[in-house]
Structures are given as C-alpha cells and as structure tokens.
Amino acid sequence: MKKIILILLLVALSQLLLAKQIRQNQQTETDDYQAEVSTIVETSCDRKCEIKNLINTYADKYNVSAFYIKRTIECETHFRNIQSNIIRNGERELSFGLAQIHLPSHPHITKEQALDEEFAIAFMAEQFSKGRHWQWFAYDRETDTCTHGYQAIARTVDN
Fold this sequence. Notes:
Layout lengths: L1 H37 L8 H16 L3 H12 L9 E2 L2 E2 L2 E2 L4 E2 L8 H5 L1 H13 L9 E2 L4 E2 L13
Antiparallel strand pairs: 1-2, 3-4, 5-6
C-alpha cells in the first residue's frame, strides 16, 4: 500500500513539474517574441507608430513589457490623448492622457504632464517596473482583453 501511495505521489509530482516546465517554455517564447518585436526599428511612421516607438524606448529603459504597455493604452484610450469618459457620482473621472493618469491619485502630476504623450508613457513604464500595473483597469492580462465596461476589441496593436 505504501508503494502505491509513493508511486501516486511521484506521478503527481512529475505532472506538476511538467506543467511548470510547459508554462515556463510558453513564457520564454512570449518573452522572446516580445524582445524580437521591440527591436524592430520603424523608419517612417504616423503618430500611432511614433507612440509605439516611445513605448518600446521606455519599456526597454524600465525593463518592462512593451506589449503590456501597448495593450493597456489600447484598452484605456485606443491611443487617443483624452480625458476619461467614465462618470462616477455624476462627475467625470479626472484621468487624462494616453495612460489615463488619475490626477487625484497622483497629485504631484499636472494635467499638462498627463496629456504629454512621452511623459505619460514614461510614467506608465516606471509604474509597471514597480509592479503597479494594477492602477489601470481597462486591460486584463490574464485574458488579454479590454474589460470593466470598456468595449472589448480585437487585438489591433502591431506586435
């Protein structure tokens, strides 16, 4: 009986280790793909392309995922430099810019800074590097979808 239990435990442990290895391999493939994408240099582009280049620059600087920054901005604002359209308690939310920086949560940041595209991207990258990606609600990393009342959209970011 003890041998059967031991064998079952060993089988269960090997399955757990195999599952962990599969997840690590998938993450490595994702990281490799994202690294390859971030090294692409675009020589001439429109505003959205320039924004993506800034995202790549600051993602590299802060050693974070450019993919997650792009997807978060896509879900938050569709790459538009706007004020939030969310109404709470009859008032429009005071979140501004590509990164939807919530000014009451960051009183040291001015509205002008939040609307500055480069500042907003750098701010988001820095926050991601500190593990503070939870500040942005529109993008769900687990499902790779736009959420929380935001229109779910197909992946349109050029990766």
